[in-house]
Amino acid sequence: MISLRGAGRVPAGCAALAILLAACPSGERPEPQGPAAPAAAPEADAAAREGMRLLQSGAVDAAEPLLVRALAARPRDARLLEAVGQVYARSDRFGQAETSYRQALEADPASPGARLGLARLLGDMGRNAEGLEVLAPLLTDRGDAPPVLLQEARLRLRAGDSAGGLKAARRAAEREPRSAEAQYLIGLGLEAAGEREEALAAFERAAEIDPGHLGALSHVRTLAARLGRAEKAAQAGARHQAALDRRRVDERVRSHRIAGVEAFNRQEYGRALEEFRIIAREDPADPQAQLFIGSSLLALDRRDEARRALDRSLQLDPRGERAWLEMGRLLALENRLDEAVTALRRAAEIEPEFAEPHYFLSGILQARGDAGGARSEMARYEELRRRTPDGGMQLLDPRPGAQP
Amino acid sequence: MRSTRRVAAAVLAAAVLSAAGAGCDRGRPEPAGAGSGPRAADSAPRSSGWVEWSDAGAGAGVRFRHVNGARGRKQMLETLGAGVCVFDADGDGRQDLYFVQGGAIPGDAAPSPEPVAGFYRNLGGGRFEEAAAAAGVAATGHYGFGCVAGDIDGDSDRDLFVAGYGSNRLYVNLGKGRFEERAAAAGVTGGGWSTSATLFDADRDGDLDLYVARYVAYNLSQDLYCGENRPGYRTVCHPKNFDAEPDLFYLNRGDGTFVDATRSAGLHETSGKGLGVVAGDVDGDGDDDLYVANDDTPNFLWRNRGRGVFEEIAQVAGCALSEDGIPQAGMGTDMADYDGDGRPDLFVTNLAEETNELYRNDGDGAFSNRTSESGLGPPSLLMLGFGTFFFDADFDGDLDLYVGNGHIIDNIALYSDTITFEMPSQLYRNLGGGRFDLPPPSGPFAGRYVVRGAVPFDLDDDGDEDIVASQNNGPALLWRHDGPVAGRSLVVMLQGRAPNRDAVGAVALLASGGRRQLRLSRTGMSYASQGDRRLFFAFDPAAAPYHLSVRWPGAPNEEHFSITAPGPITVQQGTGRSTPSR
Predict the structure, then answer these.
(1) Residue A404's closest chain B neighbor by CA?
(2) A126/B41 touch (CB, cutoff 8 Å), yes or no
(3) What local confidence, expressed as pLDDT, does residue A18 receive?
(4) Which residue out of A116, A222, A227, A257 would a mutagenesis test of the B interface target, given it has the greatest number of B Cβ atoms within 10 Å?
(5) Helices and strands (DSSP H and E) totals, chain B
(6) Which string of DSSP letters, residue by residue, matches B528-564?
(7) Do A225 and B366 touch (CB under 8 A)?
(8) Whose CB has fewer CB within 10 Å in chain B, the N or C terminal residue?
């Protein structure tokens, strides 16, 4: 980890779909049910909704039985098949994951999430050539979407096609210049081609965008040393070590993070608070733990304590858009509307794709009698919500190098 | 570049969560039986009719069976298996075999009969005779992992060091292959959990020093539960649950006794969980460096700054981590020149869902990660590699690569529907240009095993390298190379000056036209093992004469011209034309 910048995003497995859908023109989003799906029972709908929500929040084990139950009622539902594929892929049942993704594509050959998920899965099993075959229709239909291009770049680089990987990564970077992963993959392609200076520059850009990017920092250290820049190598080495240390802490506290998020999403805020405080004791420098403590305290209406936790989170990560959002909510609850608007606008500025700040801004502007401004913010909120499904409190995927 | 999901890291981490009460409703996956393994990864079978192999174990008289003492408590000791060493123990000119034994977990009652190490005298003609007790190397009551052999006391025979849990053993050769245990007297008893070792002349004073890799601080009385909290799902714990145990370095006093010089040599490092170690001169400065494959922690490259003082440079040199900058689960390692540029490269086996890593020596003190470009990455993703070594299986002049696989979690089928406990070994073919492929498996390569230590070894002295491997809690493997060999190999036995008569640390380069074959004379390698000390070169009569250059440790290079015929030769130090050495 672990930058709080990702705290509002869905975990890696879900994010690919979310981001890809964001690239879809309005109205092109796949229908949730496959053509052969039977009429869904209300219980199946409820199980599907809750299962999806849990999956997006990172609670894979809890999501699985709900999704499987829903799938039993709607066995041709492409989105459910894709979600179940994600569950299997994230729990090392690659064979079942492949089957689910392929069934999802049978039910809806246009499903970008299933196609991207399957391509990634095949790459993780070393079947890069097959992954590229699966990805090919997306490259034709949505070949400008950064997630598709990044996946293509990864598969080509892993297969030893550094030129092809470099080309795809560069196209992704053109579309999304602030993608650390795109810059990192460009660096890998350039390094494989022997272009060390250019590779170093790309890795440095990746590390600037994502200060904890282990791969980028590792390559900066090695390349800088080879190019005789000892000081830069040493700095990158220290940053890499710090990022590794943070990763180890994340591994240690992962059970508490999951338990806390699950408790929060069940509205058991006291229990959630206990779990997040364990994380904070283990890693006082974890801004996400402080944020979640603040959110839990806010839910318990313990505002002073919540403010201290959110202040601490923002000290640790001044660009934590979730923390700014929570601070905005807190200030709004205290009727400090100007400060609330400032905080919420800061959240939206940091992460332009973040929907929630606009929802709360709309409410504040409505309360102030600015009906036009409120409508505008709500429209922005609706637009962003269409792009990125929300899932309550969400876990960061603490895996360095996890795909966006 | 790829995600860092790991079976042992992620499955076990999730499993530990469950044990802690997070709960899990996951359905039980179908067990992956033989034949239900992963589909082919990239660079999998593209051709056939390559080298043929056959199982030679029972017919050769080698019936060793490793015993891990497992009793369902999933102790870490049960999982790592042990190594095998090839060395001429009795001075008859034939290479004998030593298999390290585990046995009962310390503190448990020993089974009857008590498991003993496997020592097999080579009778010639590919036949062996068991002789552990008679030779005094049965090692009962010692839970061993790795071995290394060499002449530590300069008396012209090879002594045997066995690394183990709790203590090490040093079997001093009394002559004619009879040994006496003298670890305490020699000062190498160690302690903690030693796994692998290598003998090499660190300070170029002529005698062999000893580096011992150690794993984690593991207390058998600490009954840590890992895995999902339901019957049958308990697993061995991930090493991240334990602190690393620093490796040890012993400097030879010259008389076969040692002094712990770990700190004075600059080799004290507390962050490595060592499993595999190999020595060799990676920077071409004339002394041996060390490479250590660490589990869960960055690998070490100890650069010898001269006179046996080292500095750790792996991260700066680019051979410590995965391409994505993450420490992997290093198990076994080898050092060899796979691309024919005259510089030794590095290879490390890792956990499933990680790639094995190939680090190419670029010659400027740095390595570049060539895992993807070489084609060695994808086929390793669903494998868990341990023993590994480069050798020229098809005698085309470049080095092919063996990887022995087998998971550490015996009930992995409960957690994964793709990754299996028993796995096939892999024999990668060097295609030239830095690329490898994986020809279709045949003979014993079509089976599944739980390989740990594995080394090359010409068991029948026919001029090719066969394979000997130890399985965890299973029978030893002895695979005979049945491919056409006659007239295609030059087998070089180096004889150095006393006390390093086995010329450990020598580098031999065979050249003809523009083609060069580099071979290193070393001891410990692979995982916890030591291979045949003879150096095997491809020999094409049409390309003769060949020119052999030997860089003897701490002495001038010597050139041997006009080698016109294949077969075994012995090259003695001082018999070639001297040339300046670096």
Answers:
(1) B3
(2) yes
(3) 27
(4) A222
(5) 6, 40
(6) TEE--SSEEEE--GGGPPEEEEEE-TTS-EEEEEEE-
(7) yes
(8) C
Q: How many CB pairs under 8 A join A and B?
A: 162
Distance CA B466, CA B349 (A): 20
Q: Using an 8 Å Cβ cutoff, are B240 and B296 in contact?
A: yes
Name chain B contacts of A244, Cβ cutoff 8 Å.
Answer: 326-327
pLDDT tops 60 at residue B45: no
Quick one: pLDDT at residue A34?
Answer: 35
For A126-153, what is each residue's pLDDT tens digit?
999 999 999 999 999 888 899 999 999 9
Query: B1 vs A188: CB contact, 8 Å cut-off?
Result: yes
Contact between chains at B40 and A68 (C-beta distance less than 8 A):
no
Given phi > 0 = left and psi -120 to 50 = alpha, else beta, which region is B148?
beta
Beta bridge partners, B196, equal B213
pLDDT band at residue A397 using 50, 70 and 90 as cut-offs: very low
Q: Which of residues 124-143 of A touch B (CB under 8 A)?
A: 124-129
* Predicted complex ipTM: 0.88
- Closest-CA residue to A122 (of B535, B186, B422, B382): B382
Average pLDDT on A278-282 reads: 92
A165 vs A157: CA distance, rounded Å:
5
| CA count, 13 A, side-chain hemisphere, B112 | 0
Q: What integer pLDDT is reported at residue A54 of this predicted model?
A: 84
On average, the pLDDT of chain B sits at: 90
CA-based nearest distance A368→chain B, Å: 45
Report CA-CA distances (Å) from B512 to A386, B245, B544, B548. 68, 46, 7, 9
Q: Which uninterrupted H or E stretch holds B30?
A: none
Would you call A79 helix, strand, or coil by DSSP?
Answer: helix
Q: Do B315 and A129 touch (CB under 8 A)?
A: no
Please tell me the predicted confidence (pLDDT) of residue B562. 85
For residues A201 and A205, give the distance between their C-alpha atoms in angstroms, rounded to a whole number: 6
Amino acid at A338: D
List CB contacts of A162: < 8 A, sequence separation 6 or more. Answer: A156, A188, A189, A192, A193, B372, B373
Give me the mean pLDDT over the B128-149 stretch.
Answer: 97
In percent, the amount of chain B with pLDDT more than 90 equals: 84
- Examine the pLDDT at B375 and tell me if it is beyond 90: yes
Probe site for chain B from A50, A60, A90, A93 (most B CB atoms < 10 A): A93
Alpha-carbon distance B370 to A188, whole Å?
A: 11
Distance from CA of A33 to the nearest CA of B (A): 25
First-last CA distance in chain B: 40
Bridge partners of B172, per DSSP, are B180
Taking the C-alpha atoms of residue B521 and residue B279, their distance in angstroms, rounded to an integer, is: 10
Res A26: pLDDT: 28
**Residue A266 pLDDT level (bands cut at 50, 70, 90):** confident
Cα B231 to chain centroid distance, Å, stands at: 35
| Residue from A2, A50, A67, A92 to probe the interface with B (highest B Cβ count within 10 Å) | A92
Reported as a single tens digit per residue, the pLDDT across A323-370 is 999 999 999 999 999 999 999 999 999 888 788 999 999 999 999 999
- Say whether B378 and A222 touch across the interface (CB within 8 A): no
DSSP label at residue B343? S
